[in-house]
Please model this.
Amino acid sequence: METNSNQEYTEPARPSFDSAGDKRILEGRRSFFLWLIAVGTAAMGALLAVPLVRYVLYPVFAKTTSVSWSNLGHGSQYASVTTPVRQIVKIEQVDGWREAVSRKPIYVTKGKRKGSLDGVEVLSAVCPHLGCEVPWNAEEGKFMCPCHGSQFAPDGSLLQGPALRGLDTLPVKSDKGDLMARYEYFQALLPYKKEVG
Amino acid sequence: MSTESTPGENPQTGREPQQGRLFRWFERRTGLNKLLHEALDEPIPGGARYAYIFGSGLLFIFISQVITGIFLALYYVPSADHAHVTVAYITKVVAAGSFLRSLHVYGASAMVIIVLLHLSQTFLYGSYKGRRELLWVSGTLLFTLVMGMAFTGYLLPWDQKAYFATAVGTSVASEAPFVGGLLERLMRGGNQIGTLTLSRFFAMHVFYIPALIFLFVAIHIYLFRKAGAAGPISESPVRPKQHTESFYPRQLVMDLGFALLLIVALGFAAYFAPAALGPLADPADTHFLPRPEWYYRPLFEWLKVGHGQAEFLRIVVIPGIIVALFVGLPFLDRRLERRPWRRPAAVGVFSVIFIALVTLGAYSYYQDSHDKDVAMQLEQQHRMEVQFMNQPFMPQLANGAEPPPDQTAEAAAPASPVGAEGEKIFQSHGCYACHGQGGAGTSFAPKLRGIGSKFSTAQLETLFEHPLPQMNAGGMPHFKFTPDQVEALRTYLDSLH
Model:
């Protein structure tokens, strides 16, 4: 590469593109080296992408809700229940870096419907019609929904619509004599019980 | 394709193999070869050298900062209520979150180091000479922008040291004459450091300054290519005479080697000594001793030393002279002489300023370690940081969650028999289903507590008989209550207020 020192400087001489051979970066002898660099850089990039991919995918595979079993006390105290007993369970819902703690009313009652344990049922107080909270009406001896008048027997079974099914039983188990229930949400407006997500 | 060959070059011109057609087809449509040729065949007078790796190293770290920064934004929330918990979430919970955040934190320090190396090399080699004034000035601007990134990014985790370092950093602005107070309030978005400060710093850190950096990097590279590489100190800055070597392949390999070294070093640091996060900022903490990152230590010490004396000289005149010397260097040092030992004035001033900055920084660290009270407090702050890092992640309680149990318990105790009657009605009619326990209100229906101060019993009766349209729309059932029952409800709800 010659540089003419006599003429006025314009810009450093650079290899001309139109002369072939070595000037073709994408082809021939010089390209091999470029490919080597490109492949090496790509491999490096792929390696660095591993933490990025793990980072992005984290919430996709992380457990988002931590609905756990609530202890309702020793099972013996429910052995002689005659009318439904109202209890509050605390459920924690993790939403990324937030946590929503909500308190949900449930009823422990006598009953032999599906989901009962030793003649004891745990009912969600959410009306299967449109989701209002259903209180126990001690004077009438039944659950009466304040919103649209659905009525349920002490064991939660349907007495009168517009609800299409009885109050939903929650999963129960016995742990060292303690009655445990797991709070769940169920789809409204269906004639059968169906868990929500 | 021309068949003309240049003397001294590999005469492979006659070769027109099979791949030639494919090459031509591709080249005509993309111009990729021409582009690569333009980008990579930049001639370097005197050949490739390790001294020239810092510019591209800087670009590489900047791109790394952009990538890690963009990914951090996936979980980060810039508000005083959420910034700290989201950074804690990234650090303690998200897979590889601590690693990526550490890369970003340490990358900031690396960027400051390399920018200093880059400008030192440019200065010592006299590479700003020979029609390169604007190239140098754009470089000084980029240096300022990099320091601005470091300053604004420091606040974003909203931990103790971030908060207090920024409190000091912004109060420095208030020492500027005439407009100081205004400047400080402008930076803080008010008198105090708060969520508005965080929003401002966040916007500066991710939108304004990066946009300016992209712009000035483009200008900087364009001006560099226009002027051409300056080459070694023995080369004429205007009319290069030495044998040139193109950037590709040797200089490219050196640059890539440096980039590899940087990322490996950062990766090791991030993996084995991840960046810490301190406890949540507590503005009420009067003990906390703010200390900036190492690169702001000299400035910090400069402002501390002789505080209250010769303010104008210390805050305006001397820094002003240094900035003027820094930016105006190529206009002041106009000779084409590049050898440092033949430029005693320029190199002397540079060395004095450099040594002064290093001394100030070192003195700041020395003082901290030799003042017993300060050392103890800093040690305590460090312990708090370690302690916080060892704690498991605590999610933030979401807004709109039901009131805490004590509030409900308190609400459950009506004061009078009439109130107790009201509570019974409230419970038996399921009012709480929509209006919440104790009438606290939910997302479906308004708060009923203290409704007695808004409506009389008679008005409430009317409301039950003739509900408002929004009550019907919200699914409020019709109730028939006697005036006594309405009065009881009203008494009950008022007792909760």
